[in-house]
Amino acid sequence: VNYLFRKNVIFSSYDFESMNRDFEVKIGPVRMIAVAAKLAIGRLGGGLSKTGFRALLDAMSAAAKIRAHYEAFPDDPFRFDEWALAAQRLWGEK
After folding, report:
1. HEC sequence for 8-42
2. From the CA atom positions of the chain, what is the Rg in Å?
3. Would the pTM count as exceeding 0.70?
4. Residue 20 φ then ψ, to 5°
5. Number of neighbouring beta carbons within 10 Å of residue 73
6. Most CB atoms within 10 A, among 23, 24, 26, 31?
7. Which bin fits 46, alpha (ψ -120 to 50), beta or left (φ > 0)?
8. Dihedral pair phi/psi, residue 51, rounded to 5°
């Protein structure tokens, strides 16, 4: 985690500004490449452990799935129970 903060991979000043302005951190293609490079350098240079790297990738994957699921909130109330069950599975509750 220290590596991620030290190298501005997460919670940089841009991230805080973006969260305050847009309620989310928006990462464009240029920043995504820069973050990927910092992560690769951190992993290869020993600043980021294999376990930490894997945990970060898993968290990013889970966050993307959860966001996509919530953005697909059903218009039809009869589909809510199915949607809610899928949400519980994503959160590891079922």
Report:
1. CCCCCHHHHHHHHHHCCCCCCHHHHHHHHHHHHHH
2. 17
3. no
4. -70, -35
5. 10
6. 31
7. left
8. -65, -45
